[in-house]
Amino acid sequence: MTNPVEIKPASGKLGVLLPGIGAVSTTFIAGVEAVKAGIGKPIGSLTQMGSLRLGKRNEQRDSKIKDFVPLYDLENLVFGGWDIFAEYPDCYSAAVNAGVLEQSLLDQLKDQLSEIKSMPAVFNQKYVKNLNPTRIKDVTSHRDAIDALRSDIRNFKETNNLERAVMVWCGSTETFQAPDSDIFENLSSFEKALDNDDPSILPSVLYAYAALQEDVPYANGAPNLSADFPAMYELSHKLKVPIAGKDFKTGQTLMKTILAPGFKARMLGIEGWFSTNILGNRDGEVLDDPESFKTKEVSKLGVLEQILKPEENPDLYGDLYHKVRINYYPPRGDDKEGWDNIDIRGWLNYPMQIKIDFLCKDSILAAPIVLDLALFMDLASRSGKYGIQEWLSFYFKSPTCKPDLYPLHDLFVQKNKLENTLRDLMGEDLITNLGLDYYDE
Amino acid sequence: MTNPVEIKPASGKLGVLLPGIGAVSTTFIAGVEAVKAGIGKPIGSLTQMGSLRLGKRNEQRDSKIKDFVPLYDLENLVFGGWDIFAEYPDCYSAAVNAGVLEQSLLDQLKDQLSEIKSMPAVFNQKYVKNLNPTRIKDVTSHRDAIDALRSDIRNFKETNNLERAVMVWCGSTETFQAPDSDIFENLSSFEKALDNDDPSILPSVLYAYAALQEDVPYANGAPNLSADFPAMYELSHKLKVPIAGKDFKTGQTLMKTILAPGFKARMLGIEGWFSTNILGNRDGEVLDDPESFKTKEVSKLGVLEQILKPEENPDLYGDLYHKVRINYYPPRGDDKEGWDNIDIRGWLNYPMQIKIDFLCKDSILAAPIVLDLALFMDLASRSGKYGIQEWLSFYFKSPTCKPDLYPLHDLFVQKNKLENTLRDLMGEDLITNLGLDYYDE
Amino acid sequence: MTNPVEIKPASGKLGVLLPGIGAVSTTFIAGVEAVKAGIGKPIGSLTQMGSLRLGKRNEQRDSKIKDFVPLYDLENLVFGGWDIFAEYPDCYSAAVNAGVLEQSLLDQLKDQLSEIKSMPAVFNQKYVKNLNPTRIKDVTSHRDAIDALRSDIRNFKETNNLERAVMVWCGSTETFQAPDSDIFENLSSFEKALDNDDPSILPSVLYAYAALQEDVPYANGAPNLSADFPAMYELSHKLKVPIAGKDFKTGQTLMKTILAPGFKARMLGIEGWFSTNILGNRDGEVLDDPESFKTKEVSKLGVLEQILKPEENPDLYGDLYHKVRINYYPPRGDDKEGWDNIDIRGWLNYPMQIKIDFLCKDSILAAPIVLDLALFMDLASRSGKYGIQEWLSFYFKSPTCKPDLYPLHDLFVQKNKLENTLRDLMGEDLITNLGLDYYDE
Amino acid sequence: MTNPVEIKPASGKLGVLLPGIGAVSTTFIAGVEAVKAGIGKPIGSLTQMGSLRLGKRNEQRDSKIKDFVPLYDLENLVFGGWDIFAEYPDCYSAAVNAGVLEQSLLDQLKDQLSEIKSMPAVFNQKYVKNLNPTRIKDVTSHRDAIDALRSDIRNFKETNNLERAVMVWCGSTETFQAPDSDIFENLSSFEKALDNDDPSILPSVLYAYAALQEDVPYANGAPNLSADFPAMYELSHKLKVPIAGKDFKTGQTLMKTILAPGFKARMLGIEGWFSTNILGNRDGEVLDDPESFKTKEVSKLGVLEQILKPEENPDLYGDLYHKVRINYYPPRGDDKEGWDNIDIRGWLNYPMQIKIDFLCKDSILAAPIVLDLALFMDLASRSGKYGIQEWLSFYFKSPTCKPDLYPLHDLFVQKNKLENTLRDLMGEDLITNLGLDYYDE
Fold first, then answer.
1. pLDDT-flagged residues of chain A (< 70)
2. Contact: A359, B357; criterion CB under 8 Å
3. Nearest CB to A261; choose among B412, B424, B441
């Protein structure tokens, strides 16, 4: 047993700032309000419902996570955010428009949700082709945009009398931007590029930069570049603020990082994996643009390679053909359906097939992730952690990690990492599942 | 880093004794012969194809398991076994009859397979209603049966000049026998029951007893009681022989122990899980008998409960309705198909559904398990391990463990346990996935 | 063009009498009320939404069926029925209990539905094991039961000032009763058996008998024997009343009679057809009783044989293995899910597979059938038709037909028959799809 | 009963000419040879295995089609064709390369198949982007190409001493060419365009033209324009030769024209139909080119509209969203898999869903169509029929019909048309399924 880390108390109120008040954000906020009102359960949230084992199996000391580590409770969360639609100026109208939750539930929460107003967003249609904003910030340079966002953050904290705040990106997928330009290499070249209004710097990067400058931990729920490049890592170290990303791991990719480790564990070969999605909401519309799809595709395709390590297992995964398709299909509405065909190979290369049809709801799967990230990022900050929070890989399609490491995509390795990080934080023994001593005589 | 355990060398030849020379056994044996002949790959076998990480992630010291721990290589395995059908007196004819592997492959291995003759089996039709044996041992008491089996084992070792041997049960599912009778409670009452020819003692128990008496590690691939009761644990300690079981984890249950930990990791509720199977081979025929099905059903139903812990998570799993059906369907032939419907619940209890169709091949999935168990059980024996080998839970639907512990069903916990056991055996650091030091400055 | 048949006008009001005011009946009645109130569409109803072609393809004289043949319109329907539950004495409470339609819709129809009271039913628990009635008629003999039902019918017509009435059985599946006893052979032996209270005569038979005696056409929506035996055919001729049956063709069997004719049309072989269902409502509970399941199974298994004619096509269908399973699965609630696996064979016997997952709603599929049968049975009566109405085979899993004919199960043959019967009734040319004259020069 | 048509006898031998000796052609030819050798069954072929009802249902005069109409028998078929690959100069090597049929079967037919040599093809890579021919005719004008093909046809007939011949296009899908140019309007403008080497005239048109000029009936198995425009209809009348097309109806579209008529028959609404395909063979590669895909997409999308008639049924089909995707996926090899999601609507607009997974084999489904078309086109010719043979719509995704008619896509209407055409040809009563007389007293 190691010594526990010193953690500042979760005192006062915690602000949760959300760029993008759409389906995910409103489902998250309305859900928290429903739980507070006693008319909903925070299903899917590890911080609220999860337990972890402490000590030996026969000690039976399992503990709820929220009883084990000091987290803000839901009563002390305050929500804010930015959005591009004047038509839905508050969280209630945006939630109704999103159409994820039942009207009868939203009506019970109308008062609380109507009070949460969204702020005009920093936005550039060039990078999200299929959306038509009706209310954006009138700024003429990157620096102006950053200043406006920082001022929003400060006002939000002041007005709501907040002790602390975190930011979780819940906005749309931007067009693909590789981090290969020099400007992303280090903080000094990046800040010069900011000064020069370099067009490779997309809006989500500006949000991340503004958050760090305000000592606000930043987690990125989309596959956008945002905070995932060396200059931003440098800044997060310099300012001692936690960052994490990227792209919430929900539906089909969640399933992939559950199943692929299973096949790999059993050394089953995989010859092909075909994934198609049908979805009918705004996300589907945005991804119907090939440039936005590319950003998402890169994020979705990456997971198998690290889990399976084809270079180490050429007989099993050397020829894996992996294809991902997303189709805009309006009849599905706010729901989503993922269909996967997986061609696996067993003993002597005999072929088998698996088909998976997942009738899922994206925002329902994403909402608890927003909650957990907000609470854990803040916990990290109070525990003196900063820079990349790799222990939160569990929540992301493309987990950010140190450039000299490979990311961990296996959901169960991610879970083990998260849980052992919490145990380490509190000075508990790490779990290795060895357990030979049970059998000692 | 701990001190490595002292392990006897894998010298000479290892006998692999298989009660039941049917689809699984012949697929296993033919496969090993195919690998030896350079015309097949041992896909699905951790011992042959698996690697594990050693040390830190950035050390890149991943090693093949077979290079890491001292296992017998395939060249030094010798196969033997028992069967009830005079029509298929050797492994070639039995493999042709099983119809799992292509005739053209079997023809290439005809010489090797024809040499492997099966011995007449101990069998009692009362316990496997839908099979009609044509060649069984003429014994009149439990003690006679045990003596005959022990004599078979000794002859087999002598004839083949074997250094060591292991036994892996590959026979049919027997009718259900609960371990609740007093006779299973301890070794003395059990041996008395043996003397009295107690009818609660089924043939697979006699095989296990004979194996242990001959210092042969015993692993049980069916859901039969066999070696899974206190008297047998006592014997395995007394004689210092490893035992493990039970019921090879293949197809649908394998998928269940991959998926359920995934849903649980994300705190997704499960309202219902309906599993149906169609299969057309001898296994399907045997399980068409309700009494054999009961044995299998108990084994199949248990996995979810331990993984999900409904008592700890009543909001998520308190009302889980779990139903498993097996249907004999001749057109499927030697293949098997499992269809699952899973009703899950997310944020605020919103329902989602997952359907999984698994077009699988049972013997193809089971064969590499036989190989791994044979090699690992022998490794355990050479390492001085005995009694229940819980670290091999990875391979079983109903892992045997100490009565005061709960079994571990989560495939990823099982894998972690197996790998850390190997690391411990060789004096390597255990992996906890903490990895905070990568980020130390 | 033949001469049209003389048809009495659809004057006054038509009573629709329903034994069993459960999920199907209430969905049907509430739906008709919703349509009348302008808040719903009668989707699935041929009489309300269907068209048929008249004359040549290039004449473009397609007509709505309801504009072509003289049917009662929805405004002139009056509903009544019998039920066994005192807890749900009217159609509103029964509909709420059934849980098929949304509460918000039912609330809009509360006034109309509350006025429709159900009458105490004739019932015998011996024949429907899993239901526990709370309000049944206190009768001591078959003849008493018939008299009570006839009196109910007369009162219903008088009270509501009805011109005409029809009866459609919407009650539960009774235990299996083969029509092989002598008592079913002719009217005289059957009436003797009625006098003797023969226990082979189940309640649904009494309803049919009572209906015919009151000149009320009778259609049977369950697989019960009810009106499907020679004595009842004789009665329907003697009294000149139409009868039809049996077992509404919805979900999986509907799909089967769509698909099997398709495979047959293309001479594709079928080696196996495995159908499983999961359902969680009262119907599921009733069919969990093996004796009720048998009645349903006989009805479900029959359809393939007639469509495929294995004796004529032994190479294609001689070995067809057809298996149907129904599983009570409460999480599915009022919905139903059917999963089919079909093993087909093409050119040179090469195998292919089809899997069908049908997420359906039984009562939603059955309700429009009740409406169509009520209107068409009455049309038959007004047109002077009586005895078996084979042209309504379209609506049934087990179409009743003359004993010396084989039933027609192919949905498209059934549809052709229904449409040409309507054309014949109105003196229009029958459609043969020959159409050579289009190409004459 | 009408007078039968006079039909010339099926004397001597019938040549079957196939542009494109690839997967479909070789599967067809090898299959016919297998049937002749007694080692295969012509499953899927109506001409070989189908029966049809003659007279009343209770006359039981069902007849095999081949016993009813005078067709060439398989013994008298002679095969020939053109192809673009020098690597596979005969039918055996092409069949091995196609990889559809098992090697062991092909080996048994090697002698027969090796004798069938393919002729160099007329080809233009501009219209089939993803194929790289290695042996094409060296022609410099449309007229040269036609002359070369006509000369091939004459030589083929002479060499093989054939009485008659038919041509069935089995080549690839060409890029999309609408028939909207003036040159397709009538024969005179078309022939002028031929003279001018108009680039809108693609190779498959030249084959059709050559066939007609040689009095060879022409059926088109691809969605190419080929013979489907007014000028070619005019030519087929002028020369009195039958034509038919287009695009063999196999896999997913076959299923669609089975299912959609079923939903329509029951007046079930359809909100969306999403179809995706994965396939790994040459067809998949060709269709990976967007221009070839467009030709196929037009053919695939058309079927629902005619069957459902949204303009007549706006409440049911007015908003139908229909999307078709084809994905090149090499692991599927020569097999194909179609997955469909269908969103249907029932009573009061309640939603239901159907998922269909079809593990099919394209060439296995197409081969018997080639056979039937060859035999029926020749029958048409011997019966004095010419021009568009609409009665063969049954076999096509996009049935050609007179411009002032709408095509018939419903498989069951197509079947009825085909069968009644055969009955009419032989002077039998047409079947209307009325059958009221069975019930006359």
1. 1-2, 299, 441
2. no
3. B412
What subunits make at least 3 CB pairs under 8 angstroms with B?
A: A, C
CB-based contact B411 A265, cutoff 8 Å: yes
A and D: number of Cβ contacts within 8 A: 51
Question: C349-375: per-residue pLDDT in tens?
Answer: 999 999 999 999 999 999 999 999 999
Integer Cα distance of A12 and A72 in angstroms: 9
Q: Quick check: A269 and A344 in contact, CB under 8 A? A: yes
The 3-class secondary structure across chain C, one letter per residue, is CCCCCCCCCCCCCEEEEEECCCHHHHHHHHHHHHHHCCCCCCCCCHHHHCEECCCCHHHCCCEEHHHHCCCCCHHHEEEEEEECCCCCCEHHHHHHHHCCCCHHHHHHCHHHHHHCECEEECCCHHHCCCCCCCCECCCCCHHHHHHHHHHHHHHHHHHCCCCEEEEEECCCCCCCCCCCCHHHCCHHHHHHHHHCCCCCCCHHHHHHHHHHHCCCCEEECCCCCCCCCHHHHHHHHHCCCEEEECCECCHHHHHHHHHHHHHHHCCCEEEEEEEEEEECCHHHHHHCCHHHHHHHHHHHHHHHHHHHCCCCCHHHHCCCEEEEEEEECHHHCCCEEEEEEEEEEEHHHEEEEEEEEEEECHHHHHHHHHHHHHHHHHHHHHCCCCEECHHHHHHECCCCCCCCCCCCCCHHHHHHHHHHHHHHHCCCCCCCCCCHHHHCC
Cα dihedral B84/B88/B91/B94 (nearest 10): -90
Residues C341, B337: C-beta atoms closer than 8 Å? yes
Whether the Cβ atoms of residue D213 and residue D143 lie closer than 8 Å to each other: no
**Residue B5 forms contact with A (CB below 8 Å):** no
- Residues of chain B short of pLDDT 70, as ranges, are 1-2, 299, 441
Structural tokens at position C172: 């539960």
> Which residues of chain C are within 8 Å of residue D432 when distances are taken between CB atoms?
416, 420, 430-432
The 10 Å CB-count burial string (b at 16+, else e) for B331-370 is bbbbbbbbbbbbbbbbbbebebbbbbbbbbbbbbbbbbbb
Smallest Cβ distance to C329: which of B272, B278, B332? B272
CATH homologous superfamily for the domain D251-360: Dihydrodipicolinate Reductase; domain 2 (3.30.360.10)
pTM of the entire predicted model = 0.92
Q: Which CATH entry fits the domain spanning A252-360: 3.30.360.10, 2.60.40.3080, 3.90.470.10, 3.90.180.10?
A: 3.30.360.10
Q: Architecture of D14-246+364-425 per CATH? A: 3-Layer(aba) Sandwich (3.40)
Q: Say yes or no for a CB contact (<8 Å) between B331 and C321.
A: yes
pLDDT tens digits, one per residue of C230-241: 999 999 999 999
Q: CB of B343 within 8 Å of any CB in chain C? A: yes
Query: Contact, B165 vs B121, CB < 8 A?
Result: no
Q: How far apart are CA B432 and CA B421, in angstroms?
A: 13
Question: Cβ of D325 under 8 Å from any chain A Cβ?
Answer: yes
Q: What is the ipTM of this complex?
A: 0.92
Distance (Å) from the alpha carbon of C401 to chain D's nearest alpha carbon: 9
Q: Which of C274, C332, C357 sits opposite B355 (nearest CB)?
A: C357
C306 vs C19, residue with greater confidence:
C19
Beta bridge partners of A81: A18
Q: Residue A349 CB: number of other CB atoms within 10 A?
A: 15
Q: Whose CA is closest to A338, among A255, A245, A402, A396?
A: A255
pLDDT score at B69: 96
Q: So where are chain A's domains? A: 14-246+364-425, 252-360
Residues 239-298, chain B, touching C (beta carbon < 8 A)? 271-272, 274, 276, 278
